[in-house]
Amino acid sequence: MEIHHMPGHLVRRLNQISTGLFMDRMAAAGLSLTPVQFAALNALTEHPGIDQATLAGLVAYDRATLGKVIDRLEERGAVRRDVSQADRRAKVLNLTDEGWTLYRTALPHVQAVQPQILGGLSDSERAQFLDLLDKVTMAGNALSRAPLRPVED
Measured in Å, how far apart are the chain's first and last C-alpha atoms? Predict the structure, then answer.
């Protein structure tokens, strides 16, 4: 079928595969964690004390969806909202001890599943594919409804 050779279809299928592998690995490890929750935890390990809008930009998710993700992480005690020292009206996000434990527990499982996502490729093909995927993704970043917005130090 024609659709089987279209990039949009193939990227969607790879996302299905990636998400399925991630969720299976988390379930096998006894962890209740989604890919976007892991992305949020990861960003907060590297950028503690950021606001929700900045976090959304760092993980390339829309603010409304990410707000629900943060609500769930806060409900389970992994993230807390603190009053910003710079603007008392604003809230910033930080991992709790439980959040750090969840992140450190999940990280080796997330790292271990990555090669499976690109199964069938050699190490050099994986590196090339990731370089090209990064190039294509960044070339279209401005076209996204939720673009990646790195934090500038």
Answer: 47
Tokens coding 27: 């379930």
Q: Cβ distance 126 to 115 under 8 Å?
A: yes
Indicate left, alpha or beta for 104 from its phi (over 0: left) and psi (-120 to 50: alpha).
Answer: alpha
CATH hierarchy code of domain 2-143: 1.10.10.10
CA-based radius of gyration for the chain:
17
- Residue partners of 46: CB distance under 8 A and separation at least 6: none
Domain segments of the chain as ranges = 2-143
Residue 9 main-chain phi, psi, to 5 deg: -65, -45
pLDDT tens-digit readout, 1-50? 899 999 999 999 999 999 999 999 999 999 999 999 999 999 999 999 99
Q: What is the DSSP letter of 151?
A: P
Model pTM score: 0.93
Q: How many residues in the chain? A: 153
How far apart are the C-alpha atoms of 1 and 149, rounded to whole Å?
A: 36
